[in-house]
Design a protein that fits this description.
With 273 residues, the protein is an alpha+beta fold. The chain has six helices and ten strands. It has a four-stranded antiparallel beta sheet, with helices on one face.
DNA sequence: ATATGGCCCTGGTTGC
DNA sequence: TGCAACCAGGGCCATA
């Protein structure tokens, strides 16, 4: 599932291929989802606009667009679970579950493919120069003290807190489990009862694995691929995620799996307290 | 306000 | 071997 490192990889890859190009044509599927902005509004607004820049904001991919008369707009893409953004030759037939195909001035097409339709496409107007903002704090740049303050007084588990996008945005199931393992914290602990020192350690562990994962092009576990259709390699670095029953790489005891916040949660009973 | 659980979706895996 | 039931989970919404 695409989380911060995967979304960052896709955004950078797409930026390198489509920056500066004009959107000449728009094709959209007939489904209600994944369109957050109506299909008709999107199909009418996009043609003629120029892509100035593509970047990540939380788990969202933001396209800065210019060329409108009534002020700048952004095209915001959320990959959900199975969403893919691909730049491909316009001649290639549309893959199954394609929901958007933007014809570009280069002759190529930017395509959004999403089997499960948990992804979202939206058109956002830029108000007073402020672009789209994600719901929470940015994990890669939040200061340790601000990170610690996020969890103060909270009774939910630290795992659920890490997944809550209004606190930190960008962390999903893989990096929540992996950062908790590296910080030695059991996922079931109440977020507000963890010591400052342990939260600072979690802050460091989370930033470290997110940076490492970005370097490796993300984790390819379900059908995640980057803008070229190429898989990432961070899954080779997973120490607990999807390793249920396998020996802990530190102590050798079997990795446990429980369900927390409705998500599969993997951890070592011995190494995480 | 905060926390929890159900729901949406399809494809891969599991089990008979 | 074939088929059906089951499971995965990000974000949103109703509920407690």
């Amino acid at each position: 599932m695409p989380e911060l490192p995967e979304v960052e990889t896709v955004a950078n890859g797409v930026d390198a291929r489509v920056r500066g190009q004009r959107i000449d044509s728009v094709w959209l599927s007939r489904y209600k989802e994944p369109f957050k902005t109506s299909r008709s509004e999107m199909a009418e607004a996009l043609p003629g606009l120029r892509i100035e820049r593509v970047y990540r904001e939380g788990k969202h991919i933001v396209f800065d667009l210019s060329g409108t008369e009534g002020g700048a707009v952004q095209w915001v893409v959320h990959l959900g679970m199975t969403g893919r953004l691909l730049v491909s030759a316009a001649e290639l037939p549309l893959a199954k579950h394609t929901h958007a195909a933007l014809g570009l001035s280069s002759g190529q097409e930017l395509r959004f493919v999403d089997a499960r339709r948990f992804g979202r496409l939206a058109l956002v107007r830029v108000e007073n120069g402020a672009g789209f903002r994600g719901p929470g704090h940015e994990p890669l740049s939040i200061a340790p003290e601000d990170f610690v303050a996020l969890f103060r007084g909270r009774t939910l588990t630290i795992k659920a807190a890490l997944l809550n996008q209004t606190l930190l945005h960008g962390v999903g199931n893989i990096y929540a489990d992996e950062s908790l393992f590296r910080a030695g914290i059991r996922p079931t602990r109440a977020a507000g009862r963890l010591s400052r020192a342990r939260l600072v350690r979690l802050h460091g562990a989370l930033q470290e694995i997110l940076r490492k994962a970005i370097e490796l092009g993300g984790s390819s576990v379900s059908d995640y691929v980057d803008a070229d259709g190429v898989a990432g390699f961070f899954q080779l670095e997973h120490r607990v995620y999807m390793r249920t029953g396998e020996p802990c790489l530190v102590c050798g005891r079997p990795i446990h799996r429980i369900v927390l916040a409705g998500r599969g949660t993997h951890f070592c009973l011995h190494c995480q307290r």
